[in-house]
Amino acid sequence: MMQTEINIGEILMHHTADAYMIDFGFHIGDTPVRLEWHSWPWAEFSLFGMHFNLTPTKHVVFMLVAATLLFLCMWLTGRILERQRAGEKAPKGFANAMEAFVLWVRNDIVIANIGEHDGPRFAPYIMTLFFFILISNILGLLPWGATATGNLGVTAALAVMALFTIELSGMFKLGFKGYMRTIFPSLPGMGGVGGLVMSAAMGPIEILGKLVKPFALCFRLFGNMTAGHFVILTLFGLIFMFGNLAGWRWAIGAASATLVLGVMCLEIIVAFVQAYVFAIITAVLIGMMMHEH
User: How many domains does the chain have?
Assistant: First the structure.
């Protein structure tokens, strides 16, 4: 009996690449169960010589799903806590767990790095960032799911938002003159013309540093979320690659499945860690800007 050749690279790209399709991973008869749509002609336009297409893709859909789940989760938690406290009862269950999560992000990530005075103003943004990234990461671990944070466009957008938040918060806190000192610093021990020359020379380096820091977060998140899926799918691919070895197929299948299970458990931890890293480094950069002297 002739075996169909399995293209592991095609499977990897099918799962991780963006598309106008959501594949649910099973068949009815010979027909794959999937939700598929086409590019909307009215959503395509050109501007300044560049072509744009606003048709939602698989990653956009899961990004909206993550945002909806985040809203429903917080709204439901608020309603439950309100009813429990109205009855003078201690928080319990799902609402208690979510409240503990929120307080941890607020106290140990936001206020610990930005400060008691300025921290509460940035708490909603940092908490939204943390939970949105976390939910997006976990959705990608579902068999039919997609990781929106495995799309460089999504992580770049999060980095741009962080960049504007960091720089605008510093500008409002320090004033225009104080903010410009973060770009053209006054070097201790140097004055006169030499000090001015060194301060001007430091300008491009400081600007580059401001741009690099948030975009390092962008590539870190993208790389970690994409790499995990590549590892899992590659391990699964070993089953198909060596399935024709009659004496070893069961051993290879069991070993691959065990390794995949271990990596999947590790990916759950990575989902939390990457959300934490993005949130805490953003908070640290905001705190550094707010307390710049």
Answer: 1
